[in-house]
Amino acid sequence: MSALVKRGMLAPDCDGFVSKRDVRTALMRFGISGKVTRETTDANFDHLPGDDEQRRLNLFAMNTIDNVHSARGDAIEHFRSTGIRDTWGGPSAARYAHFEAFKRHATNDFTQVEVSRAIAAFDVDPGYANVYGEPLSSNDINGRHPARTRCAPSASVTRIKVVDGEPDEQDDCHSNLWGSITFMFQELGTPTGQHARMSAAEMRSLWLEAELPQGVVDRSPATCYGAGRYGCGSCLEEYTTAPPKASYKATLRHRYCRCMMITDFELSGGFHPNATADDIRLPGALGYLDSAYAATCTDAGDATAPHTAHKVHGHAGAALVEGIGDKSGCSPYCFAGGTPAEGHYGED
FRET partner for 117 with CA separation of 20 to 30 A, picked from 16, 148, 177, 272? Predict the structure, then answer.
């Protein structure tokens, strides 16, 4: 949120408040996938009364825990927290240093494995040693969070998946501490999804300065325009006219597809109260209406992978498919379409 405010895409009112609709619009306009937008905005706003315009939070008062065991105010704190951005004096470089210690030193970057290991260092109540035996813990505890009923103060998530490095969501201590950081990393890293990477410098700038990595800025559809193509015509033109072997052509395609998927996710029912984000497969309803989108934003490789893809519907001769096994089948926009992200925000 801080990064979107810093870039001028999310504008709190004079008292620092934003509505659920404001946040949803800013996230989608920047190019954050429908799944992540839906789950994060639901988790942060749906406990409040009213409609999406009436549900409002103060972005500058999100740390609502007065002591390590209670929560107050309108915002709902995570069960546990790294505390990196919870200090009144600004982000804590000292606490971030513990997170940064888990980077890959040979390549000076993070993959999902390193991110999961770093999160684990904070996943324990204050006063207890973490899974590494260190005197490092969450900076506070939301004792009213549902995870408290199943996760003991000294317990932590202790398993990550060998295949993709994501935490075990069946663990009793899995919570939105894990879900929120995993979502952030896989959305803002490059490529998107479970195979994301982020340099140590970019990770540090993101946490401490609210600066977005260059990769996500390059693929953001925020600058797309053109009503004739659902607001994405300019980005389609840039992609189609770019030289075939241009190094940046894949990024232009990604930008256009993310732009169209913003409309497609909503048109396909992604924000319907009776649907969940996992119910939506992209290309979806908009694939029937726009053949250029259907053809451009479906990877040919998916259609020829008999064990990892299946046909969901067709339009204008273009097969619209989704990968259901191989995580790389949805590249380069895994979270926005194709195979949906395996992760969950973890609010319950």
Answer: 148
